[in-house]
Specification:
This protein has helices at residues 2-27, 34-64. The chain has one domain. Helices cover 84% and strands 0% of the residues. Helix 1 runs antiparallel to helix 2 (34-64).
Length: 68
């Protein structure tokens, strides 16, 4: 069960990282306006917060599972 939790955590963090990188690339685009950049920065902050939350939640969940 612990392996499954770790696998899900890693997959979720990878997805969030890929989304964050794509948003960073979008910020660097010339066609992106000022308001769009603010929205993208807010989304990046949300994804970073979500990754931290996933890590914390999975760690707490692993601690609750009894070990053999």
């Amino acid at each position: 069960m612990v392996m499954l939790i770790r696998l899900v955590r890693v997959l979720l963090i990878l997805v969030l990282a890929m989304l964050t990188v794509s948003l960073v690339i979008a910020i660097g685009s010339r066609e992106t306006g000022g308001v769009e950049k603010l929205v993208l920065v807010a989304l990046i902050a949300t994804f970073v917060f979500a990754a931290a939350w996933v890590t914390t939640f999975s760690s707490r969940l692993q601690q609750r599972i009894p070990r053999h």
